[in-house]
């Protein structure tokens, strides 16, 4: 299929590493040129060892699922003859423990808000089918063990 890359860079700087009090913030670069600060979530590693303004891996996972779902939804809506003006999502992921007590993402909830226009507007059944098809086609969502729910 295809290869997708991201590069990460972290440096200890002046911190003592062996005492565990080293900064966890790091730089993440994507092949398109975007750069962001990665960090553990502040509720996992407390500041100042984490960067509350950084993006944590859990947020990136939720964003990847939401983005992948949206891109397929847009394509399937277009193919069905519908016109979208905007698509927003306030996606949330829940980090919890599974049956074995292992911490993992247990659920991702997509909460899309869609603005439609055009002569043909989709019914609730059409929208549900578009979300179902988008979920089935989303590589990221299909790669996960957790449930992905569209609200």
Can you tell me about this structure?
- This protein has 151 residues and is α+β, with helices and mostly antiparallel strands.
- The chain folds into two domains: 1-55, no CATH class; 57-150, K homology (KH) domain (GMP Synthetase, Chain A, domain 3).
- The chain is 27% helix and 29% strand.
- The protein has helices at 57-79, 124-137, 139-142, and strands spanning 6-9, 26-30, 35-38, 83-89, 92-97, 103-110, 112-117, 147-150.
- Strands 1-2-3 form a three-stranded antiparallel beta sheet, with no helix packed on it. A three-stranded mixed beta sheet has the order 5-6-8, covered by helices on one side.
- β2 and β3 form a beta hairpin.
- α1 crosses α2 (124-137).
- The radius of gyration is 19 Å and the shape is elongated.
- The two termini are 31 Å apart.
- The model has no long low-confidence stretch (mean pLDDT 96).
Number of strands: 8
Kindly name the structural category.
alpha+beta
Distance between the termini: 31 Å
Number of helices: 3
* Helical residues, percent: 25-40%
Write the layout of secondary structure elements.
Blueprint: E1 6-9, E2 26-30, E3 35-38, H1 57-79, E4 83-89, E5 92-97, E6 103-110, E7 112-117, H2 124-137, H3 139-142, E8 147-150
Parallel strand pairs: 6-8
Antiparallel strand pairs: 1-2, 2-3, 4-7, 5-6
Describe, in short, the structure shown.
The protein has helices at 57-79, 124-137, 139-142, and strands at 6-9, 26-30, 35-38, 83-89, 92-97, 103-110, 112-117, 147-150. By secondary structure, the protein is of the alpha+beta class. It has a 3-stranded antiparallel β-sheet, with no helix packed on it. A 3-stranded mixed β-sheet has the order 5-6-8, covered by helices on one side.
